[in-house]
Request: fold
Amino acid sequence: MSTATIEERGAVASTAETMKAFVMEGLGKVSLVEKRVPRIGPGDALVRTTAALLCASDVHAVGGALGVRHNLTLGHEAVGRIEKLGSAVQGLRVGQRVTAGAVTPCWRCENCQRGYPSHCGRVLGGWKFGNVKDGNLAEFFQVNDAEANLCPIPDTIPYEAAVYTCDVMSTGLAGAENAAIPAGGTVAVFGLGSVGLMATAFARLLGAGLVIGVDSVPARQALARRYGADEIVDFRKAGPVEAVRRLTDERGVDSAIEAAGAAESFANCVKVTRPGGTISNVGYHGYGDSVAIPSLEWGAGMADQTIRTSLCPGGRVRMERLLRLIEAKRLDPTAMTTHRFAFSEIEKAYHLMATRADGIVKALIVF
Amino acid sequence: MSTATIEERGAVASTAETMKAFVMEGLGKVSLVEKRVPRIGPGDALVRTTAALLCASDVHAVGGALGVRHNLTLGHEAVGRIEKLGSAVQGLRVGQRVTAGAVTPCWRCENCQRGYPSHCGRVLGGWKFGNVKDGNLAEFFQVNDAEANLCPIPDTIPYEAAVYTCDVMSTGLAGAENAAIPAGGTVAVFGLGSVGLMATAFARLLGAGLVIGVDSVPARQALARRYGADEIVDFRKAGPVEAVRRLTDERGVDSAIEAAGAAESFANCVKVTRPGGTISNVGYHGYGDSVAIPSLEWGAGMADQTIRTSLCPGGRVRMERLLRLIEAKRLDPTAMTTHRFAFSEIEKAYHLMATRADGIVKALIVF
Amino acid sequence: MSTATIEERGAVASTAETMKAFVMEGLGKVSLVEKRVPRIGPGDALVRTTAALLCASDVHAVGGALGVRHNLTLGHEAVGRIEKLGSAVQGLRVGQRVTAGAVTPCWRCENCQRGYPSHCGRVLGGWKFGNVKDGNLAEFFQVNDAEANLCPIPDTIPYEAAVYTCDVMSTGLAGAENAAIPAGGTVAVFGLGSVGLMATAFARLLGAGLVIGVDSVPARQALARRYGADEIVDFRKAGPVEAVRRLTDERGVDSAIEAAGAAESFANCVKVTRPGGTISNVGYHGYGDSVAIPSLEWGAGMADQTIRTSLCPGGRVRMERLLRLIEAKRLDPTAMTTHRFAFSEIEKAYHLMATRADGIVKALIVF
Amino acid sequence: MSTATIEERGAVASTAETMKAFVMEGLGKVSLVEKRVPRIGPGDALVRTTAALLCASDVHAVGGALGVRHNLTLGHEAVGRIEKLGSAVQGLRVGQRVTAGAVTPCWRCENCQRGYPSHCGRVLGGWKFGNVKDGNLAEFFQVNDAEANLCPIPDTIPYEAAVYTCDVMSTGLAGAENAAIPAGGTVAVFGLGSVGLMATAFARLLGAGLVIGVDSVPARQALARRYGADEIVDFRKAGPVEAVRRLTDERGVDSAIEAAGAAESFANCVKVTRPGGTISNVGYHGYGDSVAIPSLEWGAGMADQTIRTSLCPGGRVRMERLLRLIEAKRLDPTAMTTHRFAFSEIEKAYHLMATRADGIVKALIVF
Reply:
C-alpha cells in the first residue's frame, strides 16, 4: 500500500502530519506519545476521533494477554468524523459522524464467508484495533474496509451514546442472542461489568420473563436493576448457585450468561442451567490453561445443554440496528459512563480502569 | 396402578407368571434370576423380548454409575412382540413386532414440552429401563406410554437390525445432528465404539465431505471405514490433534464428535475445531468431577465455538425414521454385531463386554 | 371411557348434573342452552369456568368454517377452577385456579412428537374446544391430557388477565417468534385486532427496533401504540406498501406479520419484506381457494424470503411463560378488553362480535 | 476503474486484445461476436475460459426475463485458468485452475452482511454475469471480488466436473438445505431438470429416507434414480399429489422441493407437504404476476408449514465444499452432461437448449 496516499479522496487540506496517541510501550508500560497520522489504502477511511471508551481488554493487553507489543496504540472503542476516504470507498462521505466496530473484518475471507467475521483470517482475527494494528485511543485512526465497518450516526444520537455500539452493546447483545432465551424464560447473568450490564439489558429486551443479575458490587447491582434485572444475587451473601435455583423453584434457568471472565463463574453457569438450556459465554478466559465444566450438572455430557461463545460481532448492519435501539429509546447506554476524562488525562483514566477503583464501570474519553 | 391387570386388553392366555431376567444384584454383582412378569397400566405395553443388545452403560451401572440398585433388571436395548396392551393404548396391536426406545419419556411433563423428552421429569429422566425401573434383558418387559415409545418394525427388517434403533443408531445420529456439519464440511469422530461408528455413518449420511475417525483398535478402524470414514487417525501412532489438523490443511474441522467418553478426547475435540465450529458430545463423562475446556483453542471463550450434548433421543417418530433408513439400505447396523449369544449365556456376554475382550463392539442376545 | 366417572378423584360433592352452555345449534344459529356437565376420563380435568373470551373464530365456526355442527358448545378461551381430576392426573389439585390452552394436544402422537402439537393427529387437530368437542363457553368444561394442557395461575394474576394466555397472547407471540426479527430490526404488523395487537407487543418485547402497525381503526391504532408500535400506517390514507417502504428508507422490513386474515394483506406482507426477510402468518385464510404470492417482490421465487405459518401453540410450559410476563409487568393484556358481559348476556356479546360493532376488540365473559 | 490495467499483476504478456463472446444482441437474438477482452480493477481477476455450461436462465434472459439488453455476453457457469489478477488480490495466483460462482457478491454491503450475499446491493443483485455485466460464455471473463468468488480446483477434478459447482450443484444443494429434511425423512422433488436432479442428489446426501422425484421425461427419471431417487412419480400417469400421498401412507412428505418453475408444481408442493413441513423453492416463477398457495392444504394459513426460497448461493467456501464432495466421490455431476459442443458451435447448443430438444439436460461448452 505504498501508493495509498495518492488514492485518497476528499482529504481535508489541513490534516495534521502527527497526532497524539495513547500507546502500550511494552509489557506493563503505557504513555501518551506523538505519532504519525495513519495512511489509508483504497478501501480504508481515516477518522478524526471525538470520543472513545477504555476497555478492560486494553488493560489485559498491556498486561501481556496478546503477547509483547511495542509502541502499539491502544483502544478499540471510538467514534468520530470521517477525515479522509480511500478511492474505492462508496456510500460514505468526508465529514460524516461515524461509529467504528471494535472488530473490523475483511468480510471476504474464508471465516468471514463461513459467517464468522469476528475470526477474519484466524481465530479472533477480526479484532485488529489495539491488537494487530494501531488502535483508536488517538486523535486519528485508520479503518480497514470502511464501507463495511463504519456506520453513520444519526444526528439525534450524541457521540457519547454511539460509542457504546462499538463493543459493549454489540458484545452484550451477542451474549443475550447466543443464550437462546425463550420468550418469558429465565436467565441469569454472571458478572455485571459493562458487558454483563448490556447482556442484562438485552436479555430483557429479547423477551426474558425473569432476569437475574449476579454480582457483589452495589453500584453495578443498581445499574443492573436499571437495565432490567428483576432479581439480584449478591454472591458474597449467598451461594449464587443455590440462590439462582431458589429463584427458579429449583428448576434452574433456561439460559445463563457468563460475563465475568472467571472460571468459577463459568462453572456456576453450567450448574444453574436446566437440561436443554444454554450457557452463553462472553467473558474472557485467557488467564488459565483451561476452564472446567462440572460433570454432574452437565449430565455427564448428556444434559442437552449447549455452551456457546462469542467475540464482539462487528459490521455496519449490526451497529445500525444498535443505533436504532438507542434512537428509539429502547436502551440508553450512557448510564454506564461513571467517569469522564479529556484525552490529555488518558493515563489517569487508564490507571483507574486498571485498578478498578472508584466503582468505575466505563470511562469516557473526550477529544 | 394396583388395578392395572384388570385393564389389560388382548392378553395372550398363556403369558407366564414368571420369567428369566438378568439383574444387577448389587454393586459389582450380576446374575440371571427368576422374576415375576411385569404388570402393566392403562397406557403401557408388555413386550415379549426377541433380541437385545448389551451396552457399556449396563457395565457402568453395575459399577455404580447410577448408585446402588438391588435386583434391578439390566438392559435398555431390546425388540420383541407385543404381548399385552393397556386399555388406553391405541394404534398398536398384540402380536406386533416392535422396537422400544432406550429412552421412554412421558411426553407430557415440563421438560418433554420444552422439547427435551430425554430429560423427562428431571435431567436424564427419560432413561428409565435398567435405571429407575426394570430393564429389558428379560423375557418380558413393560413399556410406559407405549403409543409414543414403541415403533412397529416393517416385515422386511429383522429383529437383529431393528434392535440398533433403540439406542446405538439414535445416539449416533444425535451426535451427528448436533455437530451441525455443513454439506461438504469436515468432521472428526473421537472414539469408534458402536455409538462413534454410528456417528461416523451419520456424519457421512448427513453430507460431510471429509469424515475422520479417531481410534486405535484395528477392528473398529475397519468398521469405521466401512461406515464411511474417509480417513482414520490412530492416536497411538501420532498426536490426534496434529493429525486432524494436517488432514484439514491446518484449518481444523468444522465439527468434532466426542464418542469416547474421555476427558482427554473431549479436550482434543475443542483443539481440532475451527472458530465457529461445533463440538458434539455423546460420550459419557461421569467418572470425574469435571471435564476441562482448553482455553487457548477455545479462543479464551470467544471463538464462536458451540459445545452441544445429548442423551439418546427416544420416540416412535425417530425410530420410524431410523427403520426407514435401514429398509432403504442407507445403513446396515448389523456389521457391528461382533458376538452373538443365547439369553442363557448372558453372563458370559456381560463379562466379555465388561472386559472389552475379543475386539467386542456389540453383543447380540437372542431370546 | 364409559367407566370414566369411577376414576374421578377429589370430586366436589355438589357438582351439578347440568349446566348452561352457549352452543352453535346449527349453521348460523346460536343459543344458550342447558347441557349435561361433561364427564372426564383418567387423564382429564373438569374445570368450573370463571372467565372466558369470545373469539372471531367462534363467529367463523357458526358461519360454517368448520362445517356443520349440531348443538356444539362454542368457545376455546377460558379460565376457571379445577372441579374434578381424572385418576391418572398428577401435579394438579382440585380447587386450583387454572388457564386452559385453546389448543389441547395429546403430546404423544406422531405430529406431537415431530414438534407440531397444534396438529395433533391431523392438520389443526390440536384445536379441539368448540371444534371437535364441546368448547368452554359453558359453566364447566372438560380438558383432555390435563397435566399438559392446564397451567396454574399465580395468585397475583386475576382471571381477567390470565384468560388472554389461552389464545390471544400465545398466537400473537407465535406471530412474532416466527417472524425472526433481528434485535433492532424492523417489522410491520398487518391487522391490529387482538392477535395483531399481541404480535405488535411481542415484536417489541422480542427486540424489534421499529414496529409499524397497519390498520385503519382509530381505537386499534391507539391500542397498538400502547402496546409498542412506533409508527402507524392507516391504509385508508396511503398505500400501505409505499408507506412501509418509506418508513424503512425504501429497504423494506426485516419481517412482516399477517394478522388480518386477508389475501390482500398477505400479498402486501410479501411486498414490504426485504430479501432474506420473513413473512409470519397468523391470520385465517379460509375464505378463498388460494392466497397469492406476488411474483415480482418474491424475487420470482428466489428472494431468500421465508413464509411461516402458525396455529395457536398450546401447552402448560408456554402458558407459564406467558403468565410470567404478565406477572413481571412486561405486558398487560387487559387493555384489549373493550367490553364485559355476564355469561347470561352471552348472546348479546356474540352479536356484537359478529357485527364488529362498537369498536369491539375483545369481549370478556364473566361467570 | 479507468486506471485498472495499470494495477494488473502477473499479466501474461500475450493476452489477446479481443476475444470471441456469445452475446444477446437484443430481445430474442443471439450471436457469436468479437469483443474486447475485459479490463480488471484492483480486486478483480481475468479468467481464460476452459469450459462452460448453458443454462435455461440464458434462454429466459434472451426471451426478456431481465428486460432489454444490448450486446450482453451471456453465461454464468464457467471455469478456467487465471489470466490476470488485480493488484489487491491475495491468495490466488496466475495460471491457477479455478471455478467462478454464478453469483459474485461484494460480500461487504448491507445485504451481504445480513447473510444474504445473493442479494448483494438489491434483490437478486449477486447475480451479475450475463445479467448486469458481461457473462462468461466468452474466451475470457472478469470476476469481481476475486478472492471471495473464485475457488481453486484440485488437480484431481476435471473442468467438466468442476463447472457444475458454479450454479447447478450450489442451487440444488440450496434446495435441499432449505427443505429442512429430517434424517430419515421424506421428500418430494418436483421437476427433474439439472437443478432438480442436484436437489434430488443432495436430499439423499443430507440424509433423507425416502426421495420421490416427480417428472415425466424418461431420461430425467433415469438420471434421478441414478442420483438417489427412491421413487419416481410420472405426473402424466397419475395425479402427482395423490401419488406422493400414497407413497407416504397418506401422511404427506416432510419436505417438498420446487425445481420446475411452474405455478401448478408449486401448488402441488404445498398440497403434498404435511403440517410442520417445509416447501423449498428453487424454481423460477417470473412468468406470471403471482403464484397461488392453496388455502386448504396450507391449513388456511395455520399449518405450521414453512415456504423458503433461494437464488444460487455463491462464494469460494461453498464451492470448495462442493468440490470436496466431487473429489470424495459422493457425487458425480457429469452424468448430467447430455451434450458437448466446441465454443464455435455455441449457437447450435443454444438452440438445442431453447427448444429443450433431444432430451437435453446440460450442454457442456468446451473452449
Remarks:
- Chain D is about 25% helix and 25% strand.
- The longest helix of chain D spans residues 194-205.
- The two ends of chain D are 29 Å apart (CA to CA).
